[in-house]
Each structure stands twice: as structure tokens, then as C-alpha cells.
Fold this sequence. Notes:
Blueprint: E1 5-8, E2 14-21, H1 26-37, H2 50-56, H3 61-73, E3 77-81, E4 85-91, H4 92-99, E5 103-106, E6 111-116, E7 130-134, E8 138-141, E9 170-174, E10 180-182, H5 190-196, E11 210-216, H6 222-232, E12 242-246, H7 262-275, E13 280-286, H8 291-304, E14 309-312, E15 316-317, H9 318-321, H10 323-339, E16 342-346, H11 358-362, E17 371-372, E18 380-389, E19 395-400, E20 402-407, E21 427-430, E22 434-440, H12 451-454, E23 456-457, E24 461-462, E25 467-470, E26 473-476, E27 483-490, E28 497-504, H13 507-524, H14 534-538, E29 546-547, E30 560-569, E31 574-584, E32 608-609, H15 613-618
Parallel strand pairs: 11-13, 11-14, 12-13, 14-16, 16-18, 18-26
Antiparallel strand pairs: 1-5, 2-4, 2-7, 3-4, 5-6, 6-8, 9-10, 15-17, 18-19, 20-21, 20-31, 22-25, 23-24, 27-28, 29-32, 30-31
Amino acid sequence: MSDSDRGEAAKEGKIEARIWLAGRDPKAATRYAQSVSTPGDPLYRHFLTPAEFQDRFGPSAGQSQLVTAWAGRNGLKTTETTAHYIGVSGPVGAVEKALAVSFHTYGDHGRSGIAPTRTPTIPRELASAVMTVTGLDRLTTVPPAVPALPPPGPQPGAPGPCSAVGKENSSGFTGADGRELAWAPCGYTPEQLRDAYGVNKPGLTGKGVTVAVVNAYASPTMAADLERYSRDHGEPLRPGQYREINSQSWDQLDTCSANTWYGEQTKDVQAVHGMAPEADIMYIGARNCTPSAFNEALLKVVDLHLADIVSCSWGETTDGYGVQERLISHSVFEQGAIEGIGFYVASGDAGYEDPVTGPGRASGSRRLQVDYPASDPLVTAVGGTSLVVGSDGAYAYETSWGQYRTAATADGRTWKDVPPGDYPRDWNGGTGGGTSIMYEQPWYQTPVVPEALSKALPGGVTGKRAMRVVPDIALVGDPLTGMLVGESTPTADGRELRYGERRSGGTSLSCPLFAGMQALVQQAGNGQPLGFANPALYLLHGSGAITDVTDTPLGADHPVAWTANRYEDQVNETGPVHTYLATTGRDGEGAARLRASKGFDNTTGLGSPNAAYTGAYARPPLSAASRP
């Protein structure tokens, strides 16, 4: 028994759970999802409607009746019946007997409440009808006592100076290679990003395509902020272009409060609009930021087919997401693939989730691991880069986003540490990536991903089986080279809201930008839904439509770096201003090091899309035989 285990839970305590139904033919559904997504397959893009999916693969009335009758015989009350699950409730003792499991009470060491001591056993009579059971774990997690990372939305305004596009502003400092450094970019506008990625073309706007953004809660100023932002950038919304479908109520959790997500949501919808100015945007707000709440929101998308493209700028460590909720999420992604819905997920901002770093500890990681749902084989994982735009406004180069920060000395003449700085102390986050220990290598990665990555398990161990590697693709994500995002935030005294634009980044910028780009692809393909993108995406490897991104675009001896300033009190944007050297293109160290190298890598995946991408993807489907 662990130190936090307080022994058996009271038998009369109440449990509320959901018993998720397996569907008519899970194996056939898996095969169909692969076939309908793979160019060259006879079923490619033969998508089903939600009603057709339900009739062919969804849970049957017989499965629902079987579970309901079983629950009644075992002293459990049916509280809810949906197309996907049966809600039940009953005393702890009855649930223990029904699922052959014991419940214990836990306290201390970061969690408290009751939970089963092991994975429950699905009774043999329900084996073909039940996928999993959720809601049994009633633990409340206490956040680890580490410094909190800034909220995921727009970062507090930098005190400047900065470098505008075409006007590089020298800082007077030198980097590790002796070169004079410029101040970090001021932040790119949507038009500048479209120019950089080569998609600012007449008529290419995402018109006729709907992109859904799924996130937790909903900022009360999100619609108004998007309205102002779009108008200020010369791409005003038309009536009805932006809509919201939100939970009927919000759950304020100790580990997740609504206002910490407002900036994230605002950035998501503005990034989609920035890349695809005429695409419709549907925002779906989950009741809180738990995997269970996100799954409810995702189910709404596939059951009603609310959009063909879905952006998800959130995730947890694979351990933190939970086995049962991962099963449900995967089933949703599978249903989406069959219906022609593509899911795009941010790969994370903490590298390989190394727990010795500030970002890794803040995410609750206890070992090296990739994030979920980015690592699910039926989503497109989007990583982050550091983007440099040339003086002519065109793409100059990118490197992987993995940033060190080294402070200037008191006299302002040099740096306190030898650049780039000390690991883990000076490492300030980077794009998520690595090799999954949960999911085997999907069929579309086999021809492209080298064994050196697919069998390289966390910690430098070489595995026997090839596994899923993330990310799949990458776009700008470095907060220092991020997009300008407009948001209404409280003043220091909390008495009013003030709108302002700030530079913002993270893979939670990369993801909605790529979702917007996929809207452009769908429009270019006469509006035909793309479905699950990865099989077609990987066929573009080596075609010239995707730019290979490396850690050293300027050469091995010339790291990409800038000088930047920050307020000591970033929240209120006050206090002394501190100058630091930001070196990017180095995502972790040792066993936690993710490297962007020639070809596919575990930091930027295939690379970043370029001017040829939308046309190449939208052309008649490639087959495996015609791969470059």
C-alpha cells in the first residue's frame, strides 16, 4: 500500500459512472477508417454521414438493453442513456462486486478522494458490448508546488524594443558566435504569415469551409475581440461567419479556472481566421478542461458533423490523460475519420515533457513522454517552429522551437552564462515531440519515419516494435516569433477591460494556423472534405511541397538567437525590465533532446508547408506507388 493509500473506501459511498458501448463491429470500423483515409484505396473519401455511421458501426439497441439489464441486476440505477454510453450510479459496495474491483481512499502526495485499486474487469457477458467504464476515479489532483507557467494565451506585452518585418533592429549585444544580435520580432500579422507560407493568393480564403475550434470554457469577449481584430486587419467578419456552441454550465475546478483559458481560445479563433479569412468558424466550449469534458465536446462535433476540420490546442501528458478517456477519444477520432472529419492537435510546449524542467514539472510529468491526444494515430499532431521573415516579407527560414534564455549581466554588456545557457535551468520550453510508448507505428508512417526514431523509446532505450512518432507537421510556434493576437484583458485594478494586441505563440498557435491552412486546401479541392489528413500528408514527403526544417538553418556554428526584454512583473507589465538572450533550435538535452534534422524528425515532423503545399495536396489523390 502506497503512502497516500488510506485503505478501503466506505461501502455506502456513492459512485456515478459511464459504461461506454463498443459498437456493432469495432474491427470493421477500424479497417474502414484506414481505407477511407488512404489515397489509392477503393474506399478513399467514401465518407459516411453520422446517421450512416450509427447504422453501420454505432452501438446497437441490443447492447444498450444488455448493459441496462445487467446494471439493474447488480444494484445499480440507470441515470442516463445516450447513443454512446449508459450512465449508472450506486453504492461503492455494489460497484465493487459488479466490476470485481476494490475502491480505496487516497490522500496526500498530490491527490485525494476514492479510486479503484486497479483497472476494473468487464464482466464476460458484457465483453462484446462494452468498450470501457469511466467516472470510477474520484480523485482530486492537487497541482505540484512549482512555479506556474504563464497562461496559454497572449503573453503580457513586451517592453520593447523589437524588430518589425523588413526593419531589423540591432540590440548591440552579440551571440555565442560573435554575431551582433537583433531584437526579437514584434509579432507577425496574419497577412505576413500568409505571405511567409505562400498562401496569400487571390481567391484562396477558405470560403465555403467550416473549421471547429474545441477548447475549455468560453471567453465572454471572444466574439467581440475577433470582430475587432478582423476589422483592424482588413478582413472583417461577415454576419454569421463566427458561431459558438458552449456547455450549458461551466465547472470551475481547483486545477482549471475559466479565465486562464480565455487567451487561448481568443488566439485559436483569430489564428484560424488569420490563415483562412473567409472560412466559417464554429467554437465549441467544453464545460471544463478535463479529458471527460473534452470528449463530450468532441462527440458533439462528430455526432452532428459540425465541421470538416477541427482544431484542438490542448492536451496532457499521456499518463495524465488516463487509459479509459484515451479509449473514448480514439473512438471519436475513428468516427471522425469515417465521416470525413480531420482533427488537428497541438503537440505541446514542454518538449519531451522532461520532469526536471520548469515546463515539464508544470505539466505534471513524472517521466519523458509525449502528449495526448497529439500522439493518437488518428489525429494530425502539429509542432512549433521559430520563423524568420526576410526584409521583403517573404519566408527566410525556420528552425525548431526549443528556447534557452540567458540573462544579461548587471552592466548590460554581456551574458551571465555561456550561451545558450544551462539545462534545465535556462530552458524555457519548446515544441512537443518524441516517440509514443502507447501506440504502434501507424501505416502511413512506415515508409517515411526511420527506425532510429520509431524504435527510440524515451530515455535512450531502443525498443523492438516501431511506435508512433510526433509531430507530423509544424508551423510557427515560438512565442518570440509568434502572431499578434488581440484580447480584452483586465486592467491592474480589475475595474475595466482594455483591448490590445500582443505577440503570442506556442503549438496552440501552430495548430489553428495549420487547421486554417487545411481550410484553404479544402477550398482549392472544390470543397471536398479532406478527412483524416495524415495518409495523404505523408505522401507529400520529398515532393517539395513541405519545407524540411532543421536545428541549424544558418549552419552548425551559428545558432538562431535574438535579444529580448521582459517585465519582472509580467502579469501587470510593471517593474524592472530584464534583458535576455533567447537561443532557439535546441529542444532539450541528453535523453530528452529532440532534434530537427534532415528528413523526418521528432521536432518538426515532415517540416512546414510552403507555397506549393495547397496545390499539391488538393490535386487528385496520390497513391503509394506514385510517392516521390
